[in-house]
Structure formats: C-alpha cells, structure tokens
Design a protein that fits this description.
The strands form two sheets. This protein has a three-stranded parallel β-sheet with strand order 1-2-3. Strands 4-5 form a two-stranded parallel ribbon. Helices cover 55% and strands 7% of the residues. By secondary structure, the protein is mainly alpha-helical. Strand 1, helix 1 and strand 2 form a beta-alpha-beta unit. The protein is built from 14 helices and five strands. Bound molecules: adenosine-5'-diphosphate (ADP) and tryptophan. Adenosine-5'-diphosphate binds next to helix 1. Tryptophan (TRP) binds next to strand 1 and helix 8.
Length: 320
Amino acid sequence: MKRVLSGIQPSGDLHLGNYFGAIQQWVKMQENHECFFFLADLHSLTSQKDPDALRKQSYEAALTYLACGIDPSKVVIFRQSDVACHTELAWILATLCPMGLMERAHSYKDKTAKGMLPNVGLFTYPVLMAADILLYSADLVPVGKDQKQHVEITRDLVEKFHHHFGEAFAMPDPFIPEEVAIVPGVDGQKMSKSYKNTIPIFCEQAELKKITMRIVTDSAEVEDKKEPEGNTIYELYKLVAPDKADDMANKFREGGYGYGELKKDLLSGIEDFLDPIWEERRKLEARKGYIEEILENGAQKAEAEASKVMEKVRSLVGLR
Ligand code: ADP
Ligand code: TRP
C-alpha cells in the first residue's frame, strides 16, 4: 500500500479552499493508502506569534480534519511539534541544501512580496517540509499546485543526501489531481487565509451570509445573460452542489436572475454542504478530551515511524 503524508498549517480558520484543495482528497485517499495527516504547527510559527491563538488554531484544525471525515481509525493524525525528529532532520537537510534552492522558492518570494517579514524560518520553510515528508517515507504528497515546488525541493534534497551518505529515504511524488480546482475566494483571487477572502468551514450562519453576499461580481444587470464559467458564484456552487450546477448555469445564461439571487442560491448550497460537517463537529465537541486523545495517540504512532528513519540518518551522517 502506498504511503501518503500531508499537512496544513494551523494558522487561521480552515476554509473551503483547504477543504476542496486538500482535505477532500485526503478523505478519499485514506480508504486505500497508508496515511499520515498532521498539523504543521512548527511551520505556523513562521507567521503566528500569538501563543494562545496557535494553541486554539491547532485544536481547531484537528477538529476540522475529523469533522470533515478524516478517520483516526484509518490514518495517523498528529501534531508536527510532538515529534522532535522533524526539526532534527530539518537541520541535517539544511546543511546539505544550497542557498540557491531556497532563494528560488516561489512561496518565500510571494510571502515577502506581500509584506510578510522574512525571518530565517520562513526562508528555510521548505527544508522543514522536506523533513516532514521524508521521515514517513511518503510515496505521495497530496498538495495544491502552490506546494508542488516544495515537493520538488524535497526530491532534490533526497538526491543530495543519497549521493553524499547513501540510501535513507523514499522518493516522494507530489499528488495533484487535475480536477482539483483552485478555489476562488470572495474577491475572485485564490481563496487564502493571507488574502482575507475566505469562506471558513466553520462560522456563524449570519457571518456566512455576510461573507457570501460580499462576493465580488461584475456590473451585469438582473435581466442580462451572464457567463457562468469563471464567475466566482458559479465556480463555488459547482464545488458545493455539483448535482445542481447545471440548473445554476442555466439561470446565468437565461438572464433574469440578479447576482443577489444567485448568491442566495449559493448560500443555501454552502449551508447544505456544510450542514453534516457542522453536525459532526457538534458531536466531536461533546466528547471531552477526545481530540487531545487522538493527537496523543497519533504522536506515538508517528514517533515510532519517524524514529526508524531518523536513526538510520544519524548513523549515515556520522552522528552515531
Ligand atoms: P492558505 O493559502 O489559506 O494559507 P495553505 O497554504 O495553508 O492555505 O493551504 C493548505 C492546503 O490547502 C494546501 O494543500 C493548499 O494547496 C490547499 N489550498 C489552500 N487554498 C486553496 C485554494 N484556494 N484552492 C485549492 N487548494 C487550496
Ligand atoms: N507547506 C504546506 C502548506 O502551507 C504545509 C505543509 C508543511 C506540508 N509540511 C508539509 C504539506 C508536508 C505536505 C507535506 O500548505
């Protein structure tokens, strides 16, 4: 069975982009792969400096994984910082990593271009990500297109390590299903925490309504015929209500439906889609201490796996 590993930074409320771009694939993959899904809390430290917020967001992210259908009886769910070898391996890989490899990383350039303060952790972020992947001998790493380069960097580091010290790692491949769309945010750009344009998986109903009504549209009038493809309202509707997407496309093309009305249809599509996930969350919250228990259990399993690879690496590089 192929090994799968992926993670999300718990640095804000998870949103529909995370759901359709990542979690939905994980839920499918857990049925026929050996999966490790984790909370990349050490990565979050590159931007999150509020300890209470980080604690809360890690808990929320774990709750979200479970509520969305990640099943702890099938996969290992853990917190990155619970397994100390992640930082140890990251250091060893950093000593092999040419500066140029990091300097070319898009994600660092994008984040600093957006005004994020460039700390060293942010710069070497892909090295820690490589350690995450390699400690679990992952064959497949399901990620969004924006993360593909990080998996390529990981592959480069595997080659360098093997060249210098000998075989220690499995060679990972990114897994990016073509049909997984880039989910648009309410402003039409890629939905992302850093653009403040997200539709969260969990929020108050009134808030969800406000956010949906804020979706940016063109100035077409009610009676105008409209093109659905590429329109944020339709693109989101296709994801949350695929069975009814044709009906909405017809409303766009026929004309006579204003964006206000189409947004209301989208809102009810989102609500229907999220309803079972919210219900599951309520059930999970009623089980006091359950999330902590899952994470402790996951940490033990992850540690057992990671320490095997780590021992081999320590010996190959001469630390033991
Ligand atoms: P954000 O951009 O909100 O910070 P992350 O970078 O933490 O999100 O993404 C976590 C996972 O969710 C990654 O695999 C990423 O590719 C996926 N993802 C995030 N936003 C989107 C989106 N708008 N469309 C598709 N996938 C997304
Ligand atoms: N960098 C990823 C993101 O921002 C999160 C992440 C950290 C990750 N380590 C990973 C994803 C290892 C896959 C595998 O989305």
